[in-house]
Amino acid sequence: MLARVLWRAGATHHCHEPFEAVYWGGADFTSVETALARVIEIDTGDRVATTEIAGPATLLMKEMTFQLRPPEFRWLAALANAPVIFVMRDPRLSATSRLRIVGELSGAKSFPPFESGWPSLVEQVAICRDAAVPYVIVDTGALRADPDGVAAKLAARTGIAIDPSALTWPARHDLQLCAPEVGAMMGGRDTAADPFYRRVLASTSVEPPDKVDLAQAAETLEAAGLGPDLADWLIMHRNLRSDPNFAGKD
Length: 250
Prior knowledge:
Blueprint: H1 2-8, E1 13-16, H2 20-25, H3 29-37, E2 38-41, E3 47-49, E4 59-62, H4 70-78, E5 84-88, H5 91-106, H6 118-131, E6 135-139, H7 140-145, H8 147-158, H9 198-202, H10 214-223, H11 227-241
Parallel strand pairs: 1-4, 5-6
Antiparallel strand pairs: 1-2, 2-3
Helix pairs in contact: 4-6, 5-10
């Protein structure tokens, strides 16, 4: 969702999870170079060679925290010429969403706690803090509850011009974010209909928060064997919302 805001705010190209093939398929760094060499042109949805991009361009790189080891994160963060934006969500919501999707992909009843992304998120924020790398933390729940307010805070912290028009957009059913050559590495993943992004690509704006029974979500995670981990993730989430670079309010 935040990527869609940033596309509207001026990003012209998108590089989607360049370390995906490394994490899921055991590929070497050549796969990362390949991902960075052919990126998605947002206006057309085509994958284009970066060497052939004419004129001014802005590249948004999106990656999952758990797919990056610390040296890889440091390398990726060093490429940025704007503050690194960390995106999080109430862990009861993010984890139940992941549980549903991995079930759809492979029939799995749970997932490794590490793939929640929370331990890596905390680690990467600490790396930025220790290395004086500028960063911002956005909670998508806060963004959905107060789009104008959170977008304004994000703009102020990043220097990216985000006006109200960036909060609406046309549906983009045509976009295939996951590269075809790595799309089949997660279970039975359907590369033509990536379940992780169907809803956001079909959306036309930042949508209000869904009405979710958080207690029921916690029970679902407990039944999947993730109850003790959820307790840790909730603490991490609360602490990150208190970070001085959090773009939102409690």
